[in-house]
Each structure stands twice: as structure tokens, then as C-alpha cells.
């Protein structure tokens, strides 16, 4: 691999995985006991026992302090490693030990003893494929500027200063003490790492850097990378809160980069340090990938894109990796040659790059009440979501837009289980017009939205109760000003999000009903519903006709696009601005992110009028149903951008497929540039691209050994083709077959 020695690669790729086989196709597997000496601490199981034993003795203390003490216990006792084959230390506790001990104990207390009725309703909604909900505190982005300008000790000192400025309530005192214990433990832990590095041959550079960042902010590019890495590891894998962005990399790291060059550090050394950082996240291998973003604007209106931006892409390109994943904040000031470089990488297989349109994001945030400066400096997080710096959004609430149609067609009952939805619908013959059916669909949709809000509000009051966030909260100025946890109203923004899924399927299904039942009168609604209930058995000709009908969303067709826009507007009107849980002090908003729900909720969704069979996958994000984008990429963009993305400050992403033949040569690259800039100018939010053809994917399915490096953009992340199941592979093959 470019920049990294083979023996170093072998070590790094294994250091996070205590398994019985290599993480990838390595010839030699390095066992965990070769990486971590038992002399450096306890193994994972002993740590968990120790955490719970200690916590029993601390039951009289507040939860923020108890969790901080558990965090401290892990950092004092976990096994560590510093090795000459790596530029970053290794930590043995990668299985989130606090989440499986104290946090789980407190979560069980909440859901089993305090609000069991909320948990029962949540579980039922998920079992029936109506709404998939779980307590979400996993889309955090620290205020990275404070992490780098203050350092770990500086964050602790700032918190202690805020603590002493005013009289505190008991809860505020506990909040600040949790931060104090947490950050003192971090500084002591970095000292542990430094001491080990000092004793390890070949790790003296690491030792020196660790000694500096133990007490001071980073001063070099390498120290800044170490700070970034250590914050990530400790938050995501010990504190138990995902870090869903490594920050605006080219803006934040530029001063360190310039300082190094001015002090005689070679660009090759900087490139190599960056490559070793990238490899950490490839080795960790989290399924959703680790986000980092580039671009945007400076305060003076000029682009953030700089020399480091190009270097970043160049190192990434030469390494041939897909994790971390890269988001590019795109606007009219983004240099064309930079955008072309990224597009060229995508057409050569780096589809881990996604473009998020800066102007749309700014308009959405300002429409939601934030300032222009907050909108300019906002973070890109997760897959392509966004939010203001110091904000904390919660949003794992995936609502299936197909279920209200099932209820409308079955007197208020589920089309798969037959369970009653709670809202009775009329007999089929009562729908004398399409408008009457459509009105009932909306009535059922609003009912589901109301139940979702009630359910989530019922448990979000307890997020900080069972999982207080000292590490993150210290980076948020508003948390220190209020003396409140980031999950308990302390953040600058405290949103909850409903993610509406499968817009294409519901728009297509309603279009087919209007077209064949009410306009052409070739079927009665009862006949069509009977076909769906039998999963088209004996009606395969009709199923094929419905599938083949080209009047589908994602193809710039008036009827399905009009329905999609109307559903989007209606759904948003039912949710936007509603207050969320009292303790969170925020509002609800909406998005169109589906993650893996296309498969899990699709499996629980009845056959539908667009020709889809019972249990088949559903559409992704704001894209056409799989295999239905028959009019090409421009038509897909035109359809998607009819929906006003500024109304949905969660996300509104388009998954685009392109044929390799369409992107070849200079003309092909120009065509990609035209598509992306058209999407941006028409007010789209996020666009990511798969470049593939059906023949290649079929061959990859038949001969996986030939395609070990083939990447696929699944939804908002990348996976290797060989790591997805046949059902998902078949879906991408259908998508490729429809490309023109």
C-alpha cells in the first residue's frame, strides 16, 4: 500500500480485531496477545466486571459522576500498545465497555421499570415495520476547533472556570464534576501511553507528541492527528458515543500543515502521517464508515479548499481505501479542478465520496431559525446529514411511508400481519375518487407521525439519565454556560428527526392506483387490493405491467413527481417545529434518510401497486425505486429537486447510478461535472454516485474472488461488494440494468 510498509499494514489492520481470522485477505493474522501485553492492563471481560463492581460502591453519587468514574476505571486499567510499526497507539477496549455495563443497566431501569409502556409501543412499531425507533445519541460532532485550540487539559480547565463563576444546583454540580473526572482521566491516560511509548524502541516520536498533548494543545500536524484520533477512540469506543465527523479537515488542519512546512517538515512526512491516520479507520472497519468533510467557505466568502484539500484526496486516492468516507461541501466557489479530481476518483471506484450542497444546507438551517454564520460553519455528519456547531440532533426514527397505504386499503389493518393500526379506514368501495383514497392515506400518515412523536418524546427525556455525555459536553460552549448535558438541553440546537422512507414506492404505487383504477378504470380497487394480498399469485401479467409502466418517480414524470412533492410537504407540515421531549428543549424536523430500512422494513411491507412483491426491498432516500430510473441521470435529478430540500434540515439525498461507458474520457468527466453542478444549482442537498454496469456486477456475483476490491455505495456509506448478501447484490444489479 502506498506510503505504508507491508509489516506496518499487517500490524495496523489487525490491532482492533480480536477474531480468529484476519480482518482482510492478509496471509498472516496477528493475534491480540501479540499486540497487547497482559502487563499493561486487564482484558475486556475483567474490565466489565470491575466497572460494575466499582459502580455498586458508588450508587450514592450522580450518574454523570458514576459514568465518569467508570470511564476513568477503563482508562486506568485497559491494555494498551505503542509499536514501532504504527504512528498511533492501540487501545484494547474497542467493544464500548461502558455501553454494555453502566449505560445498559440504567437503560434497562428506564425502559423496563420507569416507562415500560413506551418501550412496548416502540417494539411493536418496529416489529410491524411501521417505524423503526431506538434511543439515538450516536450522531455527535464535538466542536473540533475547541479541541484543537484548547487541548484536553484546556477543555477541563475551561469547564472548571465555568463551574466557579456562579452558584450551581445539585444537577449542575454533578455535570461539571463528570467533565472534571473525565478529562483528568484522559490526560492521565495520555501520560500512560507516553510512558509506554518512551519504553518502546522506535516510538520516541510518538512519545514526544503524546507528552505535549497530555498537557497542551497540539502544535504540529502529527500532534493534531493524534489529538483527533485519541478523541475519536475515547469517545466512540470508551465513552460510547459515536463521533460522526472528524471535522472540516482542510480548514482545521491547515494551520498545523503550514506550520510544519515552515519548520522544515517535508510534505512526504505529512502525507505519510495522514496515510497512517486513514488506515486506523480502515482497520476499525465500522460498517457505516467514518465521516470527514472538506470544503465550504471562509468568513470572507472565499473557498476553504486549499493545498491540504488536494493533498488529502491524493493520499486517499493512492491508498485505494473507502474508510474514512469523504463529504465535500460544494458551492459555486469550489474550484473546478478540485471537483473534477474528486469526480475522477469516483469514476475509478472511489464512490466513498459524497457531495453536499452548501447553499441548500445554509438555506435550510436559516429557514429553521439559525443565523447565517451558524449555517456557514455547520458540520456535515454521519452519511450526509448536517447541523450547527455545538448542536446535538437525535434521529433514529425511520417511518415507513408505505404503511399508511396498507391501512387505507385494509380498513385500518396492516397488509401483512392484519393488526389494527388504531385508526379505522373506510371500505374499499367508499373511495369513489382517487382524492378520497389519497386523503385517507394522509390521515393514516398523520396518525403514524403523531404516535412516533409521542413515543420518542416519551424516552428522550431520559437520554442524559442513562447515558450522560461529559466528554462531548465539554466541547460545547452552551453546555458550559447552562451547566447542562448535551443530551439534556445543553446544546446550541437539540433537534429530533423523523426519517421518512420509501418516497418513490409510495408515489409510484399511488400513481398506478390513480392511473389504472380511477383514470383508465381497468381494475377496481378491490381487484387490485386482492392482487396485492395474494402477492400477485395468478396475476403475474398485471405485476409485470405495473413494474414496466414508465410513469414512475425519478424519471421526471409529472404525476408521480407531483404526488411525491405533495407527500413531502404534507409529512413535513405534520412534524416541523413540534416540540420534542421537555428535557431536550428542542424541536422536531424531518429527513429522507433510510439507512438499511430498505431491507429490514421492506421485509415487513406488503406487495404494492407499483409491482413490488411482498418483502422485497424498498427505495433508498429520495431516489427512484430500484430498477425504475429508466430515463437517465438528468431525469433523476429533475425529479428529486422538485422536492424542496430546504424544508428538510435532516437530509434529502439522491443515490445516482452511472454506467462506466457514460463517464469515460474527458467527455465523461465533463458529463459528471454537469450532473453534479446541475443538482447543486437546482437546490439539491446531497448526491452520491455508483459507477457500475450490470455485466460487471453479475460477474462479481458469480466470481467474487476476482472482485475483492469492488466498492458499492449502499446508502450513505460504502461496503465491499463481496460483503453484502445476494439480495442486496441483486438489487444493485437491477439498478444497473435500468441505467441508460
How does the SSE layout of this entry go?
Blueprint: H1 6-14, H2 32-35, H3 44-57, H4 63-77, E1 80-81, E2 90-91, H5 99-114, H6 116-127, E3 131-133, H7 144-164, H8 170-198, H9 204-215, H10 221-239, H11 249-252, H12 254-262, H13 267-284, E4 291-295, H14 307-319, E5 325-330, H15 336-347, E6 353-357, H16 358-367, H17 372-376, E7 379-381, E8 385-387, E9 397-400, H18 403-409, H19 434-460, H20 463-466, H21 470-473, H22 477-482, H23 486-490, E10 496-501, H24 503-519, H25 525-533, H26 540-548, H27 558-575, E11 588-591, H28 597-600, H29 633-640, E12 653-658, H30 665-681, E13 686-691, H31 694-702, E14 711-713, E15 718-720, H32 726-738
Parallel strand pairs: 4-5, 5-6, 9-10, 10-11, 12-13
Antiparallel strand pairs: 1-2, 3-9, 6-13, 7-8, 14-15
Q: Note poorly predicted spans.
A: 19-28
Intertermini distance: 36 Å
Helix and strand composition category: alpha/beta
> How many strand segments?
15
Amino acid at each position: 500500500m502506498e506510503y505504508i510498509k507491508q509489516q506496518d499494514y499487517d500490524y495496523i489492520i489487525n490491532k482492533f480485531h480480536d477474531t480468529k481470522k484476519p480482518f482482510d485477505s492478509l496471509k498472516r493474522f496477528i493475534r491480540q496477545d501479540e499486540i497487547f501485553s497482559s502487563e499493561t492492563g486487564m482484558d475486556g471481560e475483567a474490565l466489565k466486571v470491575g466497572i460494575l463492581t466499582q459502580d455498586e460502591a458508588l450508587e450514592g453519587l450522580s450518574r454523570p459522576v458514576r459514568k465518569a468514574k467508570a470511564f476513568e476505571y477503563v482508562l486506568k486499567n485497559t491494555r494498551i500498545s505503542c509499536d514501532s510499526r504504527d504512528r498511533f497507539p492501540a487501545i484494547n477496549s474497542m467493544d464500548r465497555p461502558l455501553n454494555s455495563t453502566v449505560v445498559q443497566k440504567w437503560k434497562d431501569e428506564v425502559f423496563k421499570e420507569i416507562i415500560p409502556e413506551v418501550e412496548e409501543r416502540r417494539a411493536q412499531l418496529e416489529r410491524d415495520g411501521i417505524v423503526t425507533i431506538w434511543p439515538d445519541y450516536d450522531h455527535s460532532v464535538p466542536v473540533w476547533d475547541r479541541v484543537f485550540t484548547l487541548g484536553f487539559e484546556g477543555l477541563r480547565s475551561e469547564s472548571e472556570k465555568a463551574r466557579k463563576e456562579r452558584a450551581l444546583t445539585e444537577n449542575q454540580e454533578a455535570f461539571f464534576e463528570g467533565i472534571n473526572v473525565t478529562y483528568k482521566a484522559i490526560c492521565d491516560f495520555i501520560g500512560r501511553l507516553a510512558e509506554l511509548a518512551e519504553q518502546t524502541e522506535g516510538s520516541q516520536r510518538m512519545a514526544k507528541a503524546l507528552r505535549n498533548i497530555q498537557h497542551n494543545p497540539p502544535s504540529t500536524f502529527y500532534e493534531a492527528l493524534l489529538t483527533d484520533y485519541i478523541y475519536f477512540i475515547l469517545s466512540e469506543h470508551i465513552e460510547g458515543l459515536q463521533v460522526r465527523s472528524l471535522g472540516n479537515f482542510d480548514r482545521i488542519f491547515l494551520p498545523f500543515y503550514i506550520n510544519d512546512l515552515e519548520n522544515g517538515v517535508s510534505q512526504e512526512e505529512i502525507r505519510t502521517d495522514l496515510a497512517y491516520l486513514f488506515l486506523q479507520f480502515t482497520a476499525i472497519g465500522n460498517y457505516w464508515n467514518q465521516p470527514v468533510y472538506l470544503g465550504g467557505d471562509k468568513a470572507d466568502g472565499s473557498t476553504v479548499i486549499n493545498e491540504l484539500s488536494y493533498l488529502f484526496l491524493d493520499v486517499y486516492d493512492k491508498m485505494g481505501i473507502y474508510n474514512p468516507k469523504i463529504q465535500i461541501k460544494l458551492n459555486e466557489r469550489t474550484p473546478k479542478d478540485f471537483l473534477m479530481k474528486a469526480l475522477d476518483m469516483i469514476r475509478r471506484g472511489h464512490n466513498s465520496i459524497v457531495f453536499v450542497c452548501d447553499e441548500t444546507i445554509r438555506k435550510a438551517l436559516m429557514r429553521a431559525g439559525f443565523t447565517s454564520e451558524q449555517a456557514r460553519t455547520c458540520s456535515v455528519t454521519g452519511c450526509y446529514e448536517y447541523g450547527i456547531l455545538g448542536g446535538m440532533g437525535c434521529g433514529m426514527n425511520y417511518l415507513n411511508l408505505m404503511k399508511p397505504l396498507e391501512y387505507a386499503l385494509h380498513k385500518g389493518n396492516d397488509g401483512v400481519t392484519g393488526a389494527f393500526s388504531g385508526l379505522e379506514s373506510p371500505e374499499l368501495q367508499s373511495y369513489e375518487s382517487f382524492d378520497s383514497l389519497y386523503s385517507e392515506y394522509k390521515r393514516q400518515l398523520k396518525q403514524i407521525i403523531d404516535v412516533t412523536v409521542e413515543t420518542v418524546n416519551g424516552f428522550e427525556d431520559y437520554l442524559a439519565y442513562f447515558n450522560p455525555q461529559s466528554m462531548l459536553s465539554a466541547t460545547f460552549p452552551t453546555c458550559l454556560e447552562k451547566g447542562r448535558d448535551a443530551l439534556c438541553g445543553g446544546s446550541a440546537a437539540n433537534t429530533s428527526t423523523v426519517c421518512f422512507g420509501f418516497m418513490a414506492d409510495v408515489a409510484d404505487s399511488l400513481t398506478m392506483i390513480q392511473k389504472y383504477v380511477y383514470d383508465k378504470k381497468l381494475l377496481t380497487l378491490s381487484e387490485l387490493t386482492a392482487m396485492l394480498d395474494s402477492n400477485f399469485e395468478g396475476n403475474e401479467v398485471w405485476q409485470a405491467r405495473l413494474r414496466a409502466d414508465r410513469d414512475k418517480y425519478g424519471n421526471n414524470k409529472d404525476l408521480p413527481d407531483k404526488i411525491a412533492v405533495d407527500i413531502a410537504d404534507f409529512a413535513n407540515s405534520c412534524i416541523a417545529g413540534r416540540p420534542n421531549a421537555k428535557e431536550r428543549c428542542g424541536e422536531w424536523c424531518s429527513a429522507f434518510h433510510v439507512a438499511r430500512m430498505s431491507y429490514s422494513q421492506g421485509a415487513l411491507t406488503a406487495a404494492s401497486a407499483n409491482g413490488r412483491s411482498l418483502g422485497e426491498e424498498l427505495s433508498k432516500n429520495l431516489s427512484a425505486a430500484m430498477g425504475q430510473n429508466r430515463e437517465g441521470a438528468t431525469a433523476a435529478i429533475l425529479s428529486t429537486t422538485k422536492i424542496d430540500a430546504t424544508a428538510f434540515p435532516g437530509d434529502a439525498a439522491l443515490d445516482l447510478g452511472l454506467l462506466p461507458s457514460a463517464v469515460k474520457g474527458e467527455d465523461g468527466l465533463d458529463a459528471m461535472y454537469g450532473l453534479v453542478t446541475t443538482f447543486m444549482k437546482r437546490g439539491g442537498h446531497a448526491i452520491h454516485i455508483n459507477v457500475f454496469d450490470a455485466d460487471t456486477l453479475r460477474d462479481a456475483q458469480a466470481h467474487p474472488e476476482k472482485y475483492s476490491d469492488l466498492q458499492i455505495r449502499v446508502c450513505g456509506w460504502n461496503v465491499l461488494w463481496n460483503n453484502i448478501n445476494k439480495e442486496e447484490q441483486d438489487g444493485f444489479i437491477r439498478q444497473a440494468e435500468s441505467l441508460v
